[in-house]
Design goal:
This protein is mainly alpha-helical. The protein has two domains: about 60 residues, Winged helix-like DNA-binding domain superfamily/Winged helix DNA-binding domain (Arc Repressor Mutant, subunit A, Orthogonal Bundle), CATH 1.10.10; about 40 residues, no CATH class. It is built from five helices and three strands, in the order H-E-H-H-E-E-H-H. A three-stranded antiparallel β-sheet has the order 1-3-2. About 10% of the residues are buried. One of its GO terms (molecular function) is DNA-binding transcription factor activity. Keywords: DNA-binding, Transcription, Transcription regulation. This is HTH-type transcriptional repressor YtrA.
């Protein structure tokens, strides 16, 4: 996977990288058990502070997205859902409300939003998560 940072973005670099890793997994560019570059390698490649990369890896490990194997490196974990379906639906609706509110303020109508969403659905892996309740 090719990581990139945009230093002129209003989004902090650690969030840019966290989002890229999450999207990479969701879109199938990174698979469970894939090894990520070391903190030192990625910081050198992206010309960012190693503490920034360490922060990304630590945050994603705490969320269960990555795991560190001492002496081996950082790996993608198998996604697991430990929330009930009702809570997952609530979280998805909250996220959708934020996106749909933005769409309204950007001047899209419902049909345009449906077309855009439909076009984006094909970019993601929908059978990635195990352990649904």
């Amino acid at each position: 996977m090719n990581f990139q940072v945009n230093p002129s973005s209003s989004q902090p670099i650690y969030r840019q990288l966290s989002q890229q890793i999450r999207e990479g997994i969701a879109q199938g560019h990174l698979a469970p058990e894939d090894q990520l570059p070391s903190v030192r390698e990625l910081s050198k490649l992206l010309v960012v502070n190693p503490n920034t990369i360490a922060k990304v890896y630590t945050e994603l490990e705490r969320e269960g997205v990555l795991t560190t194997r001492p002496g081996l490196g950082v790996f993608v974990t198998q996604p697991r859902i430990e929330l009930t379906k009702a809570i997952r639906v609530q979280k998805l609706q909250e996220s959708l409300d934020i996106c749909l509110t933005s769409a309204v303020y950007l001047g899209f109508d419902a049909d345009e939003v449906r077309q855009i969403v439909e076009a984006r659905l094909g970019k993601y892996q929908w059978n990635l998560v195990k352990g649904k309740k």
